[in-house]
Fold:
Amino acid sequence: MGNHVRGTLSLDAENLIGITRSFLRQGVRHVVFVNGHYENYQFLYEGVDLALRELGLSDPAGPSVLLLSYWDCVSESTLATVYPQGFPGWDIELGLER
Structure:
């Protein structure tokens, strides 16, 4: 999913956990994943949680992993620029296409 958009990649659960674990083992202090599909949020949350548990990282002052969804960062003016004929709505992301 998502490989049709330049600069994106798709991860299965094993890879997500492995990448997170690898970054943190290398000493990376902050990892950020940007989600592009509404239905993937719980998958991402669980994968990151499993990686942190495996490494025994639960200290709030320790390394952190941030999960962002692109729609939380999109302004109305950006939507108007990207969709000059009118934004089709977030329902398409939820699978509720009109």
User: Anything to note?
Assistant: DSSP finds three helices and two strands in the chain. The first helix runs from residue 13 to 25. The radius of gyration is 16 Å. The helical segments are 13-25, 41-54, 76-82.
